[in-house]
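Action item from last meeting closed. Structure (254 res):
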């Protein structure tokens, strides 16, 4: 069974202060993890745009070489003009591709957010600026909701929705590892994520969970889609973690 330990180093803290310290530390670690995931996924989404940008740069270099190496004859002038036209078309394609990708990311993120969030009826839209990539959450009255005003659970749901949107937009079949996904969520959000996100998160999904997150009921619901389950048991006396086949209560020690 996995075991988590945290010790507040500041002396003289009350039990409440120590709990708050542990909670804030956990929130910071979760945010750092989500930022890392989103940064990596965003890099993958923009990879095709960067490839086209490099192609344009290569064409421009070739054009400069042609101007320096040859006198401008009719045939060469036509060829250079054609290269300029190709570069212009590629630039237009990049602009359109970026807008289309951002539009698709908006749609896919909002699609999952509506399935997962308990307050999805209060949200009218999620928009993403196609230049700055700044994300805005708009309520049904047209007002922007500050992400800092969301609860810890809603922030986690939003992050999961964004990861889903990035995965769908990139169209890359990447394995997904989800660590303690339900620890800060209420029962409604847990139900939504287990039923709507886990089965659709990717072709290969690894969930690292405690027995209080994926309990017997959730495990029974997910089991038809599982290829396997295992547990990590920590022995305090030996200071050793052992890998066991089977999920907690169904471990096979043989």
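Sequence:
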């Amino acid at each position: 069974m996995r075991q988590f330990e945290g010790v507040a180093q500041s002396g003289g803290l009350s039990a409440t202060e120590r709990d708050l310290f542990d909670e804030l530390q956990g929130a910071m670690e979760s945010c750092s993890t989500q930022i890392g995931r989103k940064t990596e996924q965003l890099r993958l989404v923009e990879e095709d745009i960067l490839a086209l940008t490099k192609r344009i740069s290569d064409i421009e270099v070739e054009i400069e070489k042609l101007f320096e190496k040859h006198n401008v004859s009719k045939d060469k002038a036509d060829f250079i003009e054609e290269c300029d036209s190709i570069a212009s078309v590629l630039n237009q394609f990049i602009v359109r591709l970026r807008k289309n990708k951002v539009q698709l990311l908006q749609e896919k993120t909002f699609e999952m957010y509506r399935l997962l969030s308990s307050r999805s009826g209060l949200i009218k839209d999620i928009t993403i600026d196609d230049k700055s990539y700044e994300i805005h959450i708009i309520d049904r009255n047209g007002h922007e909701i500050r992400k800092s005003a969301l609860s810890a659970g809603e922030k986690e749901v939003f992050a999961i929705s964004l990861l889903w949107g990035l995965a769908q937009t990139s169209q890359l079949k990447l394995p997904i590892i989800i660590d303690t996904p339900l620890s800060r969520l209420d029962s409604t959000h847990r139900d939504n994520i287990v039923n709507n996100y886990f089965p659709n998160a990717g072709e290969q999904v690894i969930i690292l969970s405690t027995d209080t997150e994926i309990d017997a009921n959730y495990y029974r619901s997910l089991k038809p889609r599982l290829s396997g389950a295992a547990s990590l048991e920590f022995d305090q006396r030996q200071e050793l973690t052992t890998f066991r086949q089977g999920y907690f209560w169904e471990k096979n020690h043989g």
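Note appended to the action item: Confidence is low (pLDDT under 50) at residues 1-10.
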